[in-house]
């Protein structure tokens, strides 16, 4: 049997810790010292780090984390602006920040960066690097922990780890459930997982794996079936299940087989609640009613993959939305970390469940859409609404029922 070390936590469930600062202040050296590995290339040449560098590890006793090393935010020129843009994008997804500064160079740049981190509600630890060279310098008076360190000698690295443990947001690993809170101990959750041309061979997609594990963690029973076997599976149970969860693509057939008294939803809608803000995306879903011919819709895929002939984001979802609106819409698609800075051309954003990203990133995207006045929904919600079964798909979530009824009236 594989050990736990061989089955690392998914990156979306890890606490993301970003290292930010000027060029050549030792961010990469500090990451190497924290992880005790040569994760990032180190050079006295400014601008050595170009794209963000990620390193997952266990930061005990906190748990699984993902360190993200970034390029200097003071980079210059056309290429420098591109590097800086990628680094600033990391701010949208970190749960905890290390602001790295040369101990002898704390100034307005660092103060403004720290203010930006605080404005984003990102807990921050200031690491004053190269402290072995400038031990006489006074520490800056800032709000938060300030730790003198030396990535070269290792001085202060243990103190920095302790500061990170103290600054980490509480409840990151133990307060959220995907569906265990919807399935009482000893009760059954039926998980409908279609196996078709778009399903990865030999494995399940991450939300399906997360659902099975969460049911087991909650001492529930998981019954996994394909859509064509659902009716027989329900007949075989001695009592009705506590919940049925389906792939959004099978919503219509599953809804026909599941009794009205049994709560039903989709993996994508569960991910909306787990990774983002379900109420906000429900509000965005009802904006589908306002779409008109030629309106532009942005489809955001959190992962990168090769589209298939029946790709959900590029083929099925646009088809269902066109049918719901009764006229052709225009669709743009982005993948992975890409997300437009300017959302004004769009009348709607439809996001995947973001199983490959983290919650901070999803909440940042929702906030950006709301700030721009652009409704945002997710795959499962948009599909359920297009098929006319949105109230049924939201039945397990009493926290959004009042908002749903108010918006529909």
Give a short overview.
The protein is of the alpha/beta class and about 400 residues long. The protein has helices spanning about 25-35, 75-90, 110-120, 155-165, 205-215, 230-235, 250-255, 265-275, 280-285, 310-325, 360-370, 380-385, 390-395, 400-409; strands at about 15-20, 55-60, 65-70, 95-100, 125-130, 145-150, 190, 220-225, 245, 265, 295-300, 330-335, 350, 375-380. The strands form 3 sheets. A 6-stranded mixed sheet has the order 2-3-1-4-5-6, with helices on both faces. Strands 8-7-9-10 form a 4-stranded parallel sheet, with helices on both faces. A 4-stranded parallel sheet has the order 12-11-13-14.
Write the layout of secondary structure elements.
Blueprint: E1 15-21, H1 27-35, E2 53-59, E3 63-69, H2 77-90, E4 96-102, H3 108-119, E5 124-129, E6 145-148, H4 157-167, E7 188-192, H5 206-217, E8 221-225, H6 230-236, E9 243-246, H7 251-257, E10 264-266, H8 267-275, H9 278-285, E11 296-301, H10 312-325, E12 330-335, E13 348-351, H11 359-372, E14 376-378, H12 379-386, H13 390-393, H14 401-408
Parallel strand pairs: 1-3, 1-4, 4-5, 5-6, 7-8, 7-9, 9-10, 11-12, 11-13, 13-14
Antiparallel strand pairs: 2-3
